[in-house]
Amino acid sequence: MQSASDRHEYPAHWEADVVLRDGGTARIRPITVDDAERLVSFYEQVSDESKYYRFFAPYPRLSAKDVHRFTHHDFVDRVGLAATVGGEFIATVRYDRIGPDGMPASSPADEAEVAFLVQDAHQGRGVASALLEHIGAVARERDIRRFAAEVLPANNKMIKVFTDAGYTQKRSFEDGVVRLEFDLEPTDRSLAVQYAREQRAEAHSVRRLLVPGSVAVIGAGRTPGGVGRGVLGNIRDAGFTGRLYAVNKAFPQDLKELDGVLAHRSVRDIEEQVDLAVVAVPADHVLDVVTECGEHGVQGLVVLSAGYAESGPDGRERQRELVRHARTYGMRIIGPNAFGIINTATDVRLNASLAPEMPRPGRIGLFAQSGAIGIALLSRLHRRGGGVTGDTGVSTFVSSGNRADVSGNDVLQYWYDDPDTDVVLMYLESIGNPRKFTRLARRTAAAKPLVVVQGARHGGAAPQGHTVRVTRLPHTTVSVLLRQAGVIRVDTITELVDTGLLLARQPLPAGPRVAILGNSESLGLLTYDACLSEGLRPLPPLDLTTAASAADFHEALARALADETCDAVVVTAIPAIGDATTGDAELAQALSSAVERVPGKPVLVVHVELGGLAEALSAAASTAPQADRAAPRTVGRAHPFRPLDFPADPLPEPSDTAEGTPRLIPAYPAAERAVRALGEAVKYSQWRREAAEPGKVPEYEDIDERGAAQLIDGLLARGQGLTLGTDETCDLLGKYGIQVHRALHAPTPDAAAEAARTLGYPVALKATAPHLRHRADLGGVRLDLADEEQLRRAYTELTELFGRPEELRPVVQSMAPRGVDTVVRAVIDPAAGAVLSFGLAGAASQLLGDMAHRLIPVTDREATSIVRSIRTAPLLFGWRGSEPVDTPALEELLLRVSRLVDDHPEVVAVTLEPVVVAKHGLSVLGASVRLALPPARDDLGPRTLPTY
Q1: CA-to-CA distance for 620 and 583, rounded, in angstroms?
Q2: What would you report as the CA-atom Rg of the chain, rounded to the nearest whole angstrom?
Q3: Rounded average pLDDT over 512-531
């Protein structure tokens, strides 16, 4: 199939698997001379109307000349692509390069005619849109910048494909034909269209797996026990609302049912449509099962079978073959080595997993790459859902195993607009496509909270079953970048559940101010300290004393919620002793009633050994009786939060939440856990507010983008992987308005004196040897040298201390105004993309790792935040009476570096160190730039599934 072309070798990198609008998959590949029979067969299945639209005349069959023309391409001036399912064509597209006169041409002509033909049975699946993205990318690669297409006015579907693509275009009408011309350079609108189509397609592909109308469990054993038989029982016991089948080729011919489920020896024997197949057969037999499923029209697979990439190189190759084979039939796979999937929706009730019990239904979407962690998360949610925090459960659950196909990115696409999911919790051991995950996470987090815990954080390798891109960024940097995208990053699955339950039950806090009230002074103080540790602003705790009644709790909570000086409330409760103590149910009803009366702020409960209270809080709902509205009890002593002699203010009337039902109050067994969850909610709420006004990337009139591009092209002509010299670095940075204090080499004392006369005194003398560079603490720098005598003396001292000049590499530099030494870096990571980093120079960044990071391009708001987000930021703003420095100038420098790297991806690394920020202005005293061909960016190309 991959035959050589007329002029170029077969471009295998154009092959791609894509997800179509309905969730199925297709393979796009170049058409070759071996495809003649496929092309003829495809054309025979196209309707006469579609043929007429393609050729503008009746064209019942292709001639031998047509077949030769449509299968022989040079892959430069003439290119044809086909979309295939099951190895057969379902659609084709081709372009032919043309000149200004509309006749066939070669480069440098940059226009081509493009034409499509889609089989009628596959029209409406988004095949033509996907082909347009791919043929457009191919054309750009071959230096074609513009497409032209002639379409009959009645061919509305094809006209819509072109007009909806988002490219800049113009339309004309002549001789009864609509002529469309459009540039192929991606625009903001074309990328937005592409991302929207990607989201709909990938979400639909996951929906086909999670909401099937029928399920076949392949590998269900005849005797109890075993994975297949267990999953069959789990699906049946959960009350799956669709059709269920048991399949095993070892079943006797006369076996009709297994555990009350229809039994078959093969999927082919099932007369009805099968939407989902759960595969639990030995790995050696899975490909045969995939073939049967594909030929029967099964839409998706959950492969529980092990023995794939997690088992070594042979298993990895077996996994590749599994994915390739499934995609041939347009099927997507969860797994292999998967734990399974769950959907608790009442109209689905699917438990196609190894979990013996269906979790409680709720509003939390749960994704786990690890089956063991998936079990732990389901267990914790189940236990806490019934005990500590009420009926907050799972909407859908996916455990992807080796995630050879369906990944966390795909499931995020589904949850983004899933009306049954309010909060997303994810356990990730690897991120296969960090750029895409960051993009999807940012969009999802703007709509609903996304909480992530990542395994293998501290240098551990990704599990063997996972194929991931290598990143050079440390985990702390990746974590910061995820937070920048709105991801709530936590460290443990306990924190994952704690934070998720709070976000699923309570409104977001408007700020960091926290009221604390309860019947234990000590527990209140612990909560107060925990708030300070999390960066919150707690109000003094209100001690209701151990004698507090349910009415006291109700009134105190209602007043705290009505207080405009607090944004959230933490209620602490300990068991009381005595005949008149408040019962758990009574206290829970009182708290719930207060929350209903004054909604809009989050409330958390910290309880100590109060199992009954947790269950009571779970049960308390809109039918809970209202607490007595009598005047509050007098507590043991006055407290600054609410003076005792204040009269009882009238309280607002009760009201439900926006959803029409009251929110359940989450409860925690420790103050630290509750406050940590609240702290994450506060940070996420702040991110949501800031994301609503994301800032802008400013334009600077003095930036010479074209001049920089010409300089870069000239430098790269010397070779790849080039670290620029001093003059070249200064020239390139100068194109973006970044001025570097030039340092003149001083190989001898006389050269140093001549350099100083050129620059003018006072000057600095620096050793730039790698072991001394940026290490003023080692004594390799002499500052404020006022004359030649001081300079020569300093030169002698350096050579006596550290060795010969050729070892020291001394330079002379003019003195800059004193200020705070900082460092600015930018790097293009092959996995995460372009990253801008900032910190103070020296020990703060090198020893303590006190660096802030943002994805490029950086906006003005992000530049402001990055300067303030390092722990040592107070040194820039007048710490302990020092002079504040010019942070606006620093922010502008960060924005200029961001623009340089974003405009020119060939700039793969920039380091400015030190950057001395003074009271007025700043000085860049050292700079280095590295150029190279940028790593490939699949996030800017056409939609495609990961290659296997």
Answers
A1: 13
A2: 33
A3: 96
Return d(Cα 507, Cα 491) in angstroms, integer. Answer: 23
- The full DSSP string for 115-144 is EEEE-GGGTTSSHHHHHHHHHHHHHHHTT-
What is the separation of C-alpha 644 from the centre of its chain, rounded to a whole number of angstroms?
Answer: 51
Rounded Cα gap, residues 493 and 425, in angstroms: 10
Long-range contact set of residues 707-710: C-beta below 8 Å, sequence gap at least 24:
707/735, 708/732, 708/735, 708/736, 708/900, 708/903, 708/904, 709/903, 709/904
Give every CB contact of residue 817 below 8 A, 6+ residues apart in sequence.
916, 918, 919, 920, 921, 923
pLDDT, position 455:
77
Give residue 140's identity as a one-letter amino acid code: R
CB 543 within 8 A of CB 518: yes
Q: Specify whether the CB–CB gap between 781 and 815 falls below 8 A.
A: no
Task: Provide the 3-class DSSP secondary structure of residue 738.
Answer: coil
Backbone angles phi, psi at 73, to 5 degrees: -130, 150
Torsion of CA 38, 44, 49, 51, to 10 degrees: 50
| Distance in Å from the first CA to the final CA of the chain | 18
> What pLDDT does residue 601 have?
95
Q: Provide the CA 528 distance to its chain's centre, in angstroms.
A: 34
List pLDDT tens digits, range 781-800. 888 899 999 999 999 988 88
* 843 C-beta neighbours (distance < 10 Å), count: 11
How do 146-151 and 169-174 pair as beta strands?
Answer: unpaired
Cα–chain-centroid distance for residue 338? 22
Enter the tokens of residue 550. 């349910």
CA distances from 369 to 355, 363, 463, 842, 864 (A): 15, 20, 10, 39, 36
Q: Are 152 and 145 in contact (CB under 8 A)?
A: no
Written as one letter, the residue type at 914 is P
Given a contact cutoff of 8 angstroms between Cβ atoms, the answer to whether 370 and 428 are in contact is no
Q: How many helices (H) and strands (E) does the chain have?
A: 27, 39
CA atoms of 258 and 352, how far apart (whole Å): 17
DSSP string, 763-820: EEEEE-STTTTT-GGGT-EEEEE-SHHHHHHHHHHHHHHH--HHHH-EEEEE-----E
Separation of alpha carbons 217 and 247, rounded Å:
6
Per the structure block, which two tokens stand in for 677?
């969850």
Tokens of 916: 């001395």
CB-based contacts of 83, cutoff 8 Å, min separation 6 = 18, 26, 27, 28, 89, 90, 91, 92, 122, 127, 130, 131
Residue 740 token pair: 């570097």
CA–centroid distance for 915 within its chain? 32
Q: What average pLDDT does range 868-888 have in this prediction? A: 92
Total residues found in the chain within this entry: 948
Q: What is the dihedral of CA 499, 501, 502, 504, to 10 degrees?
A: 120
**Per-residue tokens: 732:** 């390139």
Mean pLDDT in residue range 488-517: 94
pLDDT digits (tens, 9 = 90+) for 103-143: 999 989 999 999 999 999 999 999 999 999 999 999 999 99
Residue 394's H or E segment, with its range, is strand 394-399
Residue 218 has pLDDT above 70, yes or no: yes
Among the listed residues 865, 864, 853, 866, the one whose alpha carbon sits nearest the alpha carbon of residue 827: 853
Residue pair 149/137 in contact (Cβ under 8 Å)? The answer is no
CA distances from 434 to 202, 485, 874 (A): 17, 11, 32
Residue in 537, 849, 813 with CA at minimum distance from that of residue 675: 537
Alpha-carbon dihedral of residues 356, 359, 360, 362, nearest 10 degrees?
-160
Sorting pLDDT into bands at 50, 70 and 90, what band is 635?
A: very low
* Single-letter residue type at 602: P
